[in-house]
């Protein structure tokens, strides 16, 4: 089976890029042939940087390259805005081109809100019509799509994958946080993530936990939100507990990112907008208890995984953070819940579920035919 992923891809700074890397690597381990058609800036074996979000002919560029690669199935990792202006409307053109040439397309919709605006409805209606199959990460997202567009049999629920990781035991020492209780904020600094909210309430946390430290790690993506960035850092610098706040700025490579995660005792996620979160999946790989806002996807996660607490107001955030930082038995129970309840979320298992979706739409019944490849310098004749 040859799978063509349409997505961003590392070293591009994007959660969808990382997602595609993890999924495609899992596919390769299952002896599937993978090619990737991506935005400019992507690198790697069988990775074809093809388009820029500023292009006006994205669909034509992607289709010409995709057709030459002769995939059995195309898999689009969709997020609004990845495919040009107008919320990425050019992806509809690409879908129609694939449909005209009888090329099956699977779409993973990484963002489906419980309430759809008129533009989202317009795009999603086209996605549903012109895709062979749709994948979403949450059950409620399938319910939303079925309510608006029907076609329940076409929609598959496959959760966001979780890596298999081990904590770095010396992570706190590397960051100068030995014997500290660490609450983590990590990711891009943007208004919808509301990191400033945790900064504002953190003095109340320190009142109850003298060893508490707020570790903030991330950056602003591109040149977005300069006013928010200024206000956010002013809030940090003027905090009465500034000595209890450590800020790390940068686009962290995976190894560094993992050390930062390993140094934390919990992750705080006060987001105001979102559906599923790659950061939540990353933190779960390190069995980090989470304190989240009341976004529907977060509430569902906390209910199902039982590894976090939902905060409905600022007092809840303070209480929940203090509870996890001060009660080791409770924190350990949350950690154990994450370990046990995320076993089905490993990338190796989710790749198998994706293969079943691919097999359901592929035109040729290849059966047990396998992809076979050995690098030239690995096996040489005697």
Molecular structure report:
- This protein has 2 domains: 2-161 and 346-361, Rossmann fold; 171-341, 3-Layer(aba) Sandwich (Rossmann fold).
- The longest helix has 15 residues, at 15-29.
- Helix 8 crosses helix 13.
- It is built from 15 helices and 13 strands.
- A 7-stranded parallel sheet has the order 3-2-1-4-5-6-7, sandwiched between helices. The protein has a 6-stranded parallel sheet with strand order 10-9-8-11-12-13, with helices on both faces.
- It has helices spanning 15-29, 58-69, 85-88, 90-100, 118-130, 139-149, 171-174, 195-208, 226-237, 254-262, 278-285, 296-305, 314-326, 328-341, 347-361; strands spanning 2-7, 33-39, 47-51, 73-78, 105-109, 133-136, 155-157, 181-188, 212-219, 245-249, 266-269, 290-292, 308-310.
- 43% of the residues lie in helices and 18% in strands.
CATH homology-level superfamily of the largest domain:
Glycogen Phosphorylase B
Q: Which outline best applies?
A: globular
CATH fold topology of the largest domain: Rossmann fold
The CATH architecture of the largest domain is: 3-Layer(aba) Sandwich
CATH uppermost class of the largest domain: Alpha Beta
**Share of β-strand residues:** 15-25%
**Total tally of structural domains:** 2
| Contiguous runs where pLDDT drops below 50 for at least 5 residues | none
Report the end-to-end length measured between terminal Cα atoms.
Answer: 31 Å
The order of strands across the largest sheet is 3-2-1-4-5-6-7
Q: What's the main sheet like?
A: 7 strands, parallel
**Structural class of the secondary structure composition?**
alpha/beta
Order of H and E elements = EHEEHEHHEHEHEHEHEHEHEHEHEHHH
Instruction: Write down how many β-strands occur, each being a DSSP E stretch of 2 or more residues.
Output: 13
The percent range for helix content is 40-55%
Total count of helical runs of at least 4 residues: 15
Instruction: Give the C-alpha Rg.
Output: 22 Å
Overall pLDDT metric: 92
